[in-house]
Amino acid sequence: MDIDDDMVQARLSPQEEKFEWWRQTIGLFIGPVVFFILYLLPTPSLSMEGHMLAAILGLVITYWITEPIPIPVTALLGAALCVISGVAPAKAVLSPFADPIVFLFIGSFMIAKAMSLHKLDRRFAYYIFSIKGIGNNPLSLLIACGVIVALISMWISNTAATAIMLPIGIGVIRTIERFPVVGEAGKLSGTQLRYRTGFMLMIAYGASIGGIATPVGSPPNLITMGMIESLADFRITFFQWMLFGVPLLVMMFILLTLILRFLNPPPGGKLSDNIELLSGIKSEVNIWSRGEMYTMLSFCLAVLLWVFPGITAGLFGSESEIYKSVKGVLDEGIVALIAASILFIIPTNWEKRTFAMTWGQAVKIDWGTIMLFGGGLSLGKLMFDTGVAKVIGTRLADAGGFEGLWSITALSIIIGILVSETTSNTASASMVIPVMIAVAQAAGVSPIPPALGAGLGASFGFMLPVSTPPNAIVYGSGMVPILSMVKAGLIFDILGFIMIWIGLRILCPVLGLM
Asked: Which of 88, 290, 383, 444 would bridge with 389, disulfide CB 3.0–4.6 Å?
């Protein structure tokens, strides 16, 4: 199930729609003003190309924050303006759109689309909810829901994972409110109202933190990997990312559970065993279809081949010829394309020539995110080639007195979180990571931890409905008061910053990500 901007926008309240209208309208005119101000300002430390790029970046960042036109279109517009204004030739500007990581996006999006089409998500949810001791306990249901959405979000976008779990979560809440809870009246109590809020927040926040565990879980992860490779000449493999991403997810999930348990305590007692939701899901997932089986085969093959080079390095060493051969062949993007191709090759019905996925279904993946990713890589590379990132980074480091590796990493995380509260996590990563790499290089320290901190911080936007699509989706359910989201989001932002910093401080040296 996909959630587009129009669907999210339709769930906003009239006051929020009015705010969005003014934000977009004002931004439409402010963008060109920012462009001309930066263009007219003297910049002796920049070349002519760098000066022009700075003006274009002003326009692009303004449009990314205010969204007068779709964010992916802004990325394409920025690339086009760079060519027209002479910042760089078309081949240099557009080549990042064909970066191998872009094809990792494409293949993984197709697999995720197939999982949704064949309802593997609902089968997965049923198996978790039907575990003995979970289906009739409010706290266990809350935790199980968070586990499900986090696990799903490891492999598909957090928006899609939230969209998958929202109807299931609402069904669980309605069931809890329909059946009596020991020690409470049949009507909704304050505890039950707080519980439904916590349940919705668990879905949104669980999806966001689940995405940090794997490179394909969230667009900022792939942007981070791509920029570290192109701007810092350091390659992080799929398996290496999981080695620090999964522990961070576990720590974040424990922290999230404690926060929601404290702010939104579940009702006491046990629920009736006669939960209609489970029987309804069971009727849908009772028999495995061929489409489901082939989609599961595609998914499992992709995961196996993604982590296989890392397993090879662990067995034979990262300098062995076996590892180098495997690493050279099993590029993550190529693996994604091979796994996705299975959906079109093995027929589910030979006589009718039907397959697990049709091209008409495949082309409905999120091409906007792919274009935005390519645009972010392009602008990030140009910021380095023209010296813009170095100038910004040097001045930022000098102004704040940030010199040490871990103080710069802390700054990266903070900026990533703050920027993601006002614009998309993909745009946030595209803006912040190149600058923080430049800050680290200007200070003479490793750019890897700061870049990772900025990328992970970009996935942490928890305070407002407009911060992330998962927030907007659950807010649209009508079960989450805005003040409850702000309170929980603020606490999680602060504690999440601490957790990311501690996690990177411990894991980066251990994993050699320095």
From this structure: 383
State the amino acid at position 131 in one-letter form.
I
Residues 6+ apart with CB under 8 A from 340: 106, 107, 108, 110, 111, 298, 302, 362
Token code pair at residue 120: 């593997």
The tens digit of pLDDT for each residue in 311-367 reads 776 677 656 788 778 777 887 778 888 989 999 998 888 888 888 888 998 888 878
Q: Which amino acid is at 167?
A: P
> Does residue 366 contact residue 109 with C-beta atoms inside 8 Å?
yes
How many other C-beta atoms are found inside a 10 Å radius of the C-beta of residue 417? Answer: 27
Alpha-carbon distances, residue 42 vs 33, 117, 241, 407 (angstroms): 16, 55, 42, 31
Is 194 within 8 Å of 485 (Cβ atoms)? no
DSSP designation for 479: -
Query: How far, in whole angstroms, is CA 67 from its chain's centroid?
Result: 19
DSSP codes joined into one string, 264-280: SPPPSS---S--HHHHH
Contacts 24+ apart (CB under 8 A), 302-306: 302/107, 302/108, 302/111, 302/335, 302/336, 302/338, 302/339, 302/340, 303/155, 305/330, 305/335, 305/338, 305/339, 306/238, 306/239, 306/330, 306/332, 306/335
CA–CA separation, 375 vs 430, rounded Å? 9
Alpha-helical (H) ranges within 317-366 are: 321-329, 332-345, 359-362
**What burial letters (b/e) apply to 153-190, b meaning 16+ CB within 10 Å?**
bbbbbbbbbbbbbbebbbbbbebbbebebeeeeeeeee
Q: Return the SS3 of 354.
A: strand
Contact status, residue 426 vs residue 220, Cβ threshold 8 Å = yes
Asked whether the beta carbons of 74 and 51 are under 8 A apart, the reply is no
Task: Give the burial class of 213: count Cβ atoms within 10 A of its Cβ; 0-12 exposed, 13-18 middle, 19 or more buried.
Answer: buried
**In this structure, are residues 463 and 421 in contact, taking their beta carbons and an 8 Å threshold?**
yes
Q: How far is the first Cα of the chain from the last one, in angstroms, to the nearest whole number? A: 39
Element (H, E) at 312: helix 290-316
Note the helical H segments in 317-424: 321-329, 332-345, 359-362, 367-385, 388-400, 405-420
The C-alpha angle 429, 432, 434, rounded to 5 degrees, equals: 100
3 state SS of 97? helix
Q: What is the DSSP letter of 365?
A: S
Where do the structural domains in the chain lie, given as residue ranges?
1-87, 101-362
**pLDDT (tens digit, 9 = 90+) per residue, 390-449?**
777 667 666 666 678 898 899 889 888 877 775 667 777 877 888 888 888 878 889 999
Helix (H/G/I), strand (E/B), else coil: 348: strand
Nearest to 332, CA basis, from 312, 302, 362, 311: 302
> pTM (2 decimals)?
0.66
